[in-house]
Write a structure and sequence with these properties.
Elements lengths: L8 H22 L20 E11 L2 E3 L2 E3 L7 E3 L2 E3 L9 E8 L5 E3 L2 E3 L3 E9 L2 E4 L2 E4 L12 E8 L5 E8 L6 E5 L1 E3 L2 E4 L2 E4 L9 E9 L2 E9 L8 E13 L2 E4 L4 E3 L10 E10 L5 E8 L105
Parallel strand pairs: 1-20, 4-8, 11-13, 17-19
Antiparallel strand pairs: 1-2, 1-6, 2-3, 4-5, 6-7, 6-8, 9-10, 9-12, 9-14, 10-11, 12-13, 14-18, 15-16, 16-17, 18-19, 20-21, 20-23, 21-22, 23-24
Length: about 400
């Protein structure tokens, strides 16, 4: 006569059910971190099928708005500003953000980290009207703060025009700054340079590439101690790119002020001259950017021009709607109803912030939850492993030489 089993089938199933319930409760308990404005972002929400790299100026808060898109994040999201660890409280309107955003099951865009990068940081060398010179870089900025004088150390956030001039969206006073510049390395009669800054100790093979360089600067020459090609390899998991830039036509391609070239087959962008735009596309196998849509940008920190979405109609313009699906809708109201969101970054511009008067406080353009120009949901992207574009022989290499 055989012995009865020590554990019955019913008891075993009950045990499995209890274990599963305990795990689910633990996951709910761990997932209570809320996005800015109660967006409900949790660490386990990522149902996206890929990511979109988004590079552009922070337009407003209520989460953050970059390139017209609302991007949510957890209160404890990792933030790095010029490579240094920071918190969301250090975020400011006008900073240039780099994120990888994925779409959740409910259509929400979420990022797991935020990187902020200045275009140049160092001492002001000259002030002339609305023009600053920082490490040999010409900067257009209309701020009137009394610290804007030669010798003051600053970090400049903004976008380069195709002539290399930086249009500042934020100039932030910063002590003990590390001299740093990011831009297109060019070759002149007297050697390599970025803008008006001569370079020493930089590999000539970097000519035509967008490079971030740190070092010591003296009498208009930077001795490089660290160089890094800015090829967006930090946007790991992104199969698409949405990048804000000054753009002009270069044959059948688009030349971006940052130094990159995007391939559009003469379909988008300005027919003549230069325009500030959001350029959207997919990475090809050669790590180039194949453009599938563009949208003109009319308003940005430091400007008093018409708002995004009110761009003129015509070839290459996509009035209203999403930046990846133009015409799919119109900008909606602030998701926080014009009220500051709990834990929102800064209640106004940073001390010594960017050009032009910009009221701060709840519901104001520079305060959290203020009015802006949100776009529609972004299109899904496929998966892609680590790596960026612009490598040797790649499709997004340099412009001016």
């Amino acid at each position: 006569m055989s012995r009865p089993p020590l554990i019955s089938r019913r008891l075993l199933l009950t045990g499995f059910w209890l274990a599963g319930t305990a795990i689910a409760r633990a996951q709910v308990k761990r997932g209570t971190d809320q996005g800015i404005g109660g967006t409900g972002i949790t660490r386990g929400d990522d149902h996206g099928i890929g990511g979109t790299g988004i590079v552009g100026v922070i337009q407003r808060f209520g989460s953050i708005y970059v390139n017209g898109e609302r991007i949510t994040y957890a209160n404890d999201v990792p933030v790095r500003i010029d490579g240094d660890a920071a918190s969301i409280k250090a975020l400011r309107i006008g900073q240039l953000a780099r994120v990888v955003a994925t779409r959740q099951a409910d259509g929400t865009l979420v990022t797991r980290s935020i990187s902020i990068a200045s275009e140049v940081s160092g001492p002001i060398e000259q002030v002339k009207g609305n023009e600053l010179t920082v490490l040999g870089q010409k900067v257009l900025s209309s701020g009137k703060e009394n610290w804007r004088r030669a010798g003051t150390e600053v970090a400049v956030f903004g976008l380069r025009r195709t002539d290399g001039v930086i249009v500042a969206s934020l100039v932030e006073q910063r002590g003990n700054v590390t001299p740093r510049v990011t831009g297109l390395v060019e070759r002149g009669a007297d050697g390599l340079h970025i803008g008006g800054l001569k370079l020493s100790g930089v590999d000539p093979l970097l000519v035509g590439r967008r490079v971030q360089i740190e070092g010591s600067a003296n009498q208009g020459v930077m001795q490089a101690s660290r160089t890094r090609i800015d090829d967006f390899s930090d946007l790991v998991g992104a199969s698409r790119l949405s990048i804000e830039a000054y753009v002009q036509r270069a044959g059948s391609n688009l030349q971006l002020g940052s130094g990159f070239v995007a391939h559009d087959g003469s379909r988008f962008g300005p027919a003549a001259g230069e325009a500030r735009m959001v350029v959207n596309g997919v990475f090809d196998r050669a790590r180039g950017l194949q453009v599938d849509s563009t949208q003109a940008v009319g308003q940005f920190p430091g400007s008093s021009m018409p708002s995004p979405g009110r761009s003129p109609s015509g070839p290459g313009h996509s009035p209203g709607g999403s930046i990846l699906h133009p015409g799919s809708g119109t900008p909606g109201p602030s998701p926080t109803g014009g009220q500051p969101a709990p834990g929102a970054p800064g209640t106004g511009p940073a001390p010594g912030s960017g050009p032009g008067p910009s009221p701060s406080g709840p519901g104001a353009p520079s305060g959290p939850g203020g009015m802006g120009s949100p776009g529609g949901p972004m299109g899904p992207g496929g998966g892609m492993g680590g790596g960026g574009f612009g490598g040797p022989g790649g499709g997004m290499g340099g412009g001016r030489r």
